[in-house]
Amino acid sequence: MTAVNHSSLQPPSFLLIGIPGLQDLHIWLSVPFCLMYLSAVFGNFILLFVIVKERSLHEPMYLFLAMLAVADLVLSSSTVPKALSIFWSLSKEMSFHACLTQMFFAHVSFIAESTILLAMAFDRYVAICNPLRYTAVFTRSVIAKIGLAAIARSFCVMFPTIFLLRRLPYCRHRVMPHTYCEHMGIARLACAGISINIWYGFATTLLSPGVDIVLIGVSYVLILRAVFRLSSKDAKLKAVGTCSSHACVICLFYTPAFFSFFTHRFGHRIPHHVHILLANLYMLLPPMLNPIVYTVKNKLIREKVSRGIKCWCPRQQY
Predict the structure, then answer these.
(1) Rounded to whole angstroms, how far apart are CA atoms 183 and 204?
(2) Distance between CA atoms of 82 and 306, rounded to whole angstroms?
């Protein structure tokens, strides 16, 4: 009987109003959102195509980069199209189950990307600190298992949130001041206590991306210690160069995400539209900039990408 009552209190759909207080600017905000999303999709597809096509790039570092590109595509595509639909007043409604599905894929791809970044940090650690064991450690089988582990870990972390949200009564509350569905945004519409949701969200953030960033930091401390022990200046520069692109991607990924997380929970004096903009920023900024960073910083990828673009572009007839 309780389940029936709860299901009757679940709204058939949510009404997403976009960025509260900035509704008059939605059409203008859609321009950078759309351009950033198109850049993210194009850049990650190009990167993924080049890595798959070029056999010389079928190495651990580049295979991890391909996984990162897939996670970026899922992360941005799960949220941005709906945000653009809201900005353009095409559709602001989303069914309850579609909202849970969007929330699930957005958070799963975020945690999976965090796991892949951790694996890439370990890859750089072994390559620099223990290069003789690199090929023995990162076999094709190990890389495949790491990819499956990233998916399994993110699935196990986020799957309980579906039941935590479904158990809540919403008393027909359906107006959500956001551009996409996320865990705490849905939970705050409930007309019952959400302390379990709050603590579960806090614990999963600290125990998944939080642990990842700590382990990544430890790996880079060990890498820097090994680099400073190198006698050759050229060897030091080469070692730093191989890690610089990954370090940039880590900063791009975690900085807006953690800033959004902590302001969402502790920055109560920060205007609500700033929270929503930050939440959209970490869904858009890393997927857009990651391909650019790796293409600019990695000479081999830069050469393969430029060669691929030249092959696609039709030769002009004179």
Answers:
(1) 12
(2) 32
- As a whole number of angstroms, the distance between CA 43 and CA 295 comes to 9
| pLDDT tens track, the chain, 318 positions | 444 455 556 788 899 998 888 888 899 999 999 999 999 999 999 899 888 888 888 889 899 999 999 999 999 999 999 999 999 988 889 999 999 999 999 999 999 999 999 999 999 889 888 888 898 999 999 999 999 999 999 999 999 999 999 988 988 778 898 899 988 889 888 888 889 998 998 888 888 888 999 999 998 888 888 877 766 677 667 667 667 777 888 888 888 887 777 776 666 677 888 888 888 888 898 899 888 888 877 777 877 777 766 665 555 443
Instruction: Specify which residues 93 forms β-bridges with.
Output: 15
Euclidean distance between CA atoms 244 and 22, whole angstroms:
37
Whether the CB-CB separation of 190 and 169 falls below 8 Å is answered with yes
pTM over 0.85: yes
**Three-class secondary structure of residue 16 per DSSP:** strand
